[in-house]
Design goal:
Blueprint (H helix, E strand, L loop, with lengths): L4 H6 L7 E2 L2 E2 L1 E2 L10 H13 L10 H21 L7 E4 L2 H16 L5 E5 L8 H10 L2 E5 L9 H7 L4 E7 L11 H9 L5 E4 L11 H4 L3 E5 L10 E5 L1 H6 L10 E4 L4 E3 L13 H17 L1 H20 L4 E4 L8 E6 L4 H10 L2 E2 L1 E3 L4 H7 L4 E5 L6 H18 L1
Parallel strand pairs: 3-15, 5-6, 5-7, 7-8, 8-9
Antiparallel strand pairs: 1-2, 4-10, 9-10, 11-12, 13-14, 14-17, 16-17
Helix pairs in contact: 2-10, 3-10, 4-5, 11-14, 12-14
């Protein structure tokens, strides 16, 4: 590969930790990825020498902070290939981005009798906002089925699209299985019927290039903390024509133009959707995380993680009593599995004792678990700072856990 994995790992201080005397093996990246020193130091620099509120001051510090934050917005715009910074809205994360669309798009465009289409593999954050919206508006939530291998049933998806469908909301990548949906095709099928599409990109954008103009999606939501950035920051990309037609999600300072007791007018995009003081240090840190990713190269990251996925899939498939959940390809660097006769929490706890961090449970995807007839999985999710040697340690630890629990 084009990068030195040993040097890459040195960029992430937390990877040097010892957990109960064992070197940390961090395979919980789909929940939250770790931060490189460049991100940590950039946020510290803001707090040390740039701390001020943004957009509201004529003094030097305020202008410095404003420039730093808006430069981060431009960095993110370039990364997405959005047409304008007006289409890049700062939120608290993927969940708030989806809720923003459910609230604001819902107010503007959803009425009784309308339908919204999602899929069986969605994260709860891309289910519940639409349920609530449908209940409030008298609309219906339609669920596209998946196949036994975890892939989306395209024929059933197409059958759900009709004149009553006012929005499609789908995951780009399953947070449980890592399966990559054919998202461009799914968007095209919806657009053939003039249906706008929101994509939950939280699990896709850390692993692959996302060009929102090439995809032609109408909304794309994701979080910084899954992209080697800080928690508490996310992005909603939205096509300008929809964002301009949608009412504000929250009100207060910053998102206004003129206020009187008789009438209020709202600020232009993107600020119409950014009420109150933003997470300035975290936004600046997110911009630095994007720069770090781009310095390595997203294509290089994707290729290396694919090697890890192939190696990990082969290694874990060789373990007796282990079943991988979601086998359809292509996949991002995620492997969810179950162990015969062993509860996922028990296995996860033992792996933790051996210094290996994995995620256990239903992964905020209870409907998917119900479809798979399981109550949870063990999920190992890889990042470009992980190694094949760490996967070997995981495989050894799983076999050891089996001998202890069976």
């Amino acid at each position: 590969m084009d990068f030195d994995i040993d040097n890459i790992r040195k960029d992430f201080p937390i990877l040097q930790l010892k957990i109960r005397g064992k070197s940390l093996v961090y395979f919980d990246n789909a929940a939250t990825s770790q931060k490189p020193t460049a991100v940590i130091e950039r946020m510290a620099k803001y707090n040390r020498s740039e701390n001020s509120n943004v957009h509201r001051g004529v003094h030097w510090l305020s202008q410095l902070a404003t420039d730093a934050m808006e430069n981060a917005r431009e960095t993110i715009r370039e990364h997405l290939n959005a047409q304008s910074i007006e289409e890049v809205i700062f939120t608290k994360g993927t969940t708030e981005s989806i809720n923003l669309v459910a609230s604001s798009f819902g107010k503007a465009f959803i009425t009784a009798g309308d339908e919204i289409v999602i899929s069986e593999m969605e994260h709860h954050a891309n289910i519940i906002p639409w349920q609530i919206l449908c209940q409030e508006k008298g609309a219906s939530l339609k669920v596209s089925k998946i196949n036994p291998d975890g892939s989306l049933n395209i024929d059933h998806y197409k059958s759900l699209l009709n004149s009553r469908t006012k929005l499609v909301a789908l995951a780009h990548v399953s947070n449980v299985m890592g399966i990559i949906n054919p998202i461009k095709e799914l968007i095209h099928l919806a657009h053939q019927k003039q249906i706008p599409v929101l994509i939950d990109g939280a699990q896709a954008i850390p692993h692959t290039n996302v060009d929102v103009q090439e995809l032609d999606c109408d909304f794309y939501a994701f979080s910084a903390h899954k992209m080697y950035g800080p928690t508490g920051v996310g992005i909603l990309y939205g096509k300008k024509k929809f964002l301009e037609a949608m009412p504000p999600y929250q009100t207060g300072g910053e998102m206004i133009d003129q206020v009187s007791f008789e009438k209020t007018t709202f600020a232009d995009l993107p600020f119409k959707f950014e009420a109150g003081t933003p997470m300035i240090a975290s936004i600046i840190g997110f911009g630095e995380a994007i720069k770090y990713i781009n310095n390595i190269g997203i294509a290089t990251i994707e290729a290396y993680e694919h090697q890890l996925l192939d190696y990990g899939t082969k290694k874990l498939s060789e373990i007796n009593g282990l079943t991988i959940i979601g086998t359809h390809k292509p996949k991002a660097a995620v492997i969810s599995f179950i162990l015969d006769g062993i509860h996922h929490y028990d296995a996860g706890s033992l792996l933790d004792q051996m210094g290996i961090a994995v995620r256990t449970g239903n992964h905020c995807a209870q409907p998917l678990m119900k479809y798979m007839h399981i109550n949870g999985t063990i999920r190992a999710s890889f990042a470009f700072y992980n190694t094949k040697q760490e996967i070997d340690l995981l495989a050894e630890a799983i076999v050891k856990a089996q001998t202890m629990l069976l």
